[in-house]
Amino acid sequence: IEKTYSMLKPDAVRNHHIGEIIARIERAGLTIERMVLEPVTPEQAAANYAEHEGKPFYDGLIAYITSGPVVKMVVSGEGAVKKMRTLMGPTNPAEAAPGTIRGDFGLIMDENVIHGSDSVASAEREINIFFGE
Length: 133
Ligand code: GTP
Ligand code: MG
What we know:
Blueprint: E1 3-8, H1 10-14, H2 18-27, E2 31-38, H3 42-48, H4 58-65, E3 70-76, H5 80-88, H6 101-105, E4 114-116, H7 120-131
Antiparallel strand pairs: 1-3, 1-4, 2-3
């Protein structure tokens, strides 16, 4: 069964949206396989966002993702990677339609509520970053 990595980012936790977001994931027929609320370590942040190193928004991105506890999850189900990306909506909440998680709970690109792996290969890599030994 397909697995994806998802993470409720610090703004989602701060704004008390954990329950509503997880309810949407379960209502979509997906299963929460693993879940923990804790900070992202600096090592995890660097590994997860390695592709963005050197970009103008990189330092802000690392500061944001390590700014408070997050909910780290492994989510499974048929087509889980794509299903999660559809539930999330586009990267920029300003462009996300109502009914999507980012459209309903986000306002700006720098604080976009939730992360979901963009492919099965990324999911494997990210599950290892956040849940590997
Ligand atoms: P994630 O689920 O967080 O990986 O988002 P994504 O897959 O929709 O986007 P991507 O992996 O391309 O970018 C990772 C994160 O970097 C995004 O969630 C944004 O917060 C941030 N980001 C990406 N592009 C930009 C940008 O052009 N400007 C700013 N300010 N932030 C960006
Ligand atoms: Mg991404």
